[in-house]
Amino acid sequence: MCKVLFHIELDAVEPLKIAVGNINNLLKEIPKNQCDIVVVANYKGPLLFVKNNFDQEIYSHIKKLHDLGVQFLMCNNSLNNLNLKAQDLIEEVGITKAGILEIIKRQADGYAYVRT
User: Fold this and answer.
1) Which candidate, 66, 3, 12, places its Cα nearest to that of 34?
2) Which PANTHER family match (predicted)?
3) 16, 55, 71, 78: which has the fewest C-beta neighbours closer than 10 Å?
C-alpha cells in the first residue's frame, strides 16, 4: 500500500495548489483504495483552511479529495498560536495535537514525506 504525507507550513495558496495537484496526479496513477494520503498543516498552514479566508476554487478540490478519503489534519499547537478554533476551519479538516509529532509518527510508519 502506498502511504504519502504532504506537509504544508506556509500561509500561501501556491503550496496548497501544488499539493492538491500532486495528490490528483497520484490518484490518477494509484487508486485511492491502494494509497493512504494525509495532508498535515502546521505553523501558518492552518490559515489556508479558515472558512472566511478560503479560496473557493481550491475548496472544491479539497472537498473532492476529502470525499475520496484524503485526510487534512491541522496542528492544534499552531491553531492555538494563531488564535484559531476548530470551528473557524472548513469542515473537511481534522485536528492533530502536534503537527510535528504527526509527521514523525507517519514517517516512522512508512509514509513518504512531500513538502510543498
Assistant:
1) 3
2) BLR3518 PROTEIN
3) 55
One-letter identity of residue 47: L
pTM over 0.90: yes
Domain of 40 in residue numbering reads as: 2-115
17-45 residue pLDDT tens: 999 999 999 999 998 789 999 999 999 99
Q: How many domains in the chain?
A: 1
Please state the three-class secondary structure of the chain as a single string.
CEEEEEEECCCCHHHHHHHHHHHHHHHHHCCHHHEEEEEEECCCHHHHHEHHHCCHHHHHHHHHHHHCCCEEEEEHHHHHHCCCCHHHECCCEEEECCHHHHHHHHHHCCCEEEEC
